[in-house]
Amino acid sequence: MMKIFDTRSSFDEFRNSLTPNLTIGLVLTMGNLHAGHLTLIEKSCDDNDITVVTIFVNPKQFGPNEDFNQYPRTLDKDLEKIANLNLILQSKIIIFAPNSNSEIYPENFSTLISVGKMTQLLCGKFRPTHFDGVTTVVFRLFTIAKATNAYFGQKDYQQCVLINKMINDLEIPIKMHIMPIIRNQAGLALSSRNQYLDEEQKIKALRLPQTLIKIEKMLLQSEDPQSIIENELKQSEWDYLEILNAKDLTPLKLDTKLTIDAVVIGAYRLGNTRLLDNRMVKINA
After folding, report:
1. What angle do CA 122, 125, 127 make, to 5 degrees?
2. What is the DSSP code (8-state) at residue 60?
3. Averaging pLDDT over each range in 59-68, 153-162, 255-264, which range is the top one?
4. For the chain, which terminal residue's Cβ has fewer other Cβ atoms within 10 angstroms, N or C?
5. What does DSSP assign to residue 105?
6. 185-211 per-residue burial string, b: 16 or more CB within 10 A, e: under 16
7. pLDDT by residue (tens digit) across 80-121?
8. What gap in Å lies between CA 26 and CA 18, rounded to an integer?
9. Distances from the Cα of 143 to the Cαs of 57, 135, 150, 154, 173, in angstroms?
């Protein structure tokens, strides 16, 4: 079964008709779906009675000079991919694809959800309004879907940490699941923005995951990768390249005697395309 709703009222009517004991999985997307998105949907279908997939290009997370108008809108192809997946899974997938921004942000809507200092780190330094837009739309869609579980990809790791903090701080009754990064055969993390890269840039983009792997290996061997990080950051393509505490994105002290869950995280820019990636690593002093 697959149902599609494009208005808040029609989705609400359906959602309110469901029996209270059903488990609801939620996958939030901006469309232009790739294998990473489909993996999240498949996991949600495995875990829950019903999966809700939202397709909404959120204007609030784009800055004034970013690619909101150019962001690929491929609803028909997205629906076809989900339908094909559903034929395999034989699950219950509900799609909420609002036909206008007003379905999410009604007239005179002016509230922003912000989690504070962590929005100013990493990507937040380069996109100062981005994460307030992300947490606001996620909160809105959590409220609308009233889901049991929500599924996010690890590639946008800072986003995952911020949303998890919002859930905890506001005591939102939903469980967050962070799923592993899906990569192409060469090792590049899948992203809707990869399609902006030409063939030469796709090869050059591999420096991002390869550098993260190199740093991860050094950490596992108790070696200090600081010189590699400093040399890489001399290249103009890097927005940032850091090793942080995976829980709260605070700077990591490598001389600690504790076992720490760390994240090696980077943003790499090719032309107008900005790529994100990260590696999780457990550091044992």
Report:
1. 105
2. G
3. 153-162
4. N
5. S
6. eeebbbbbbbebbeeeeeeebebbbeb
7. 999 999 988 888 999 999 999 999 999 999 999 999 999 999
8. 15
9. 18, 12, 12, 23, 10
> pLDDT tens, 178-232?
999 999 999 999 999 999 999 999 999 999 999 999 999 999 998 999 999 999 9
What count of other Cβ atoms lies within 10 Å of the Cβ of residue 108? 5
Task: Give me the amino acid identity at 59.
Answer: P
Is 130 considered catalytic here? Answer: no
CB 208 within 8 A of CB 268: yes
**Global confidence as pTM:** 0.95
Distance CA 212, CA 279 (A): 6
Q: Cα separation of 280 and 282, whole Å?
A: 7
Active-site pick, 34, 37, 130, 177: 37
Distance of alpha carbon 152 from alpha carbon 129, whole angstroms:
21
